[in-house]
Amino acid sequence: MAANSAVERAFQLAGSCATLEEIRRTLRAEGYASVDAHLAGRMIRGQLSLLLGGKKAGGPAPASIV
Prior knowledge:
single chain
């Protein structure tokens, strides 16, 4: 398994995936455990959705979310 946590990897994948479900599938395929539990939090889902939504709208995704 990679050195990144599932949450860190999810944020990395937000740059190349189109949906939250695609992020989940990719994390599972990469061997991360308890993916649904790691991404269940409202704040994490919201932040990932913002990153994913920025791509759909054609605008740049935020550089970082604090």
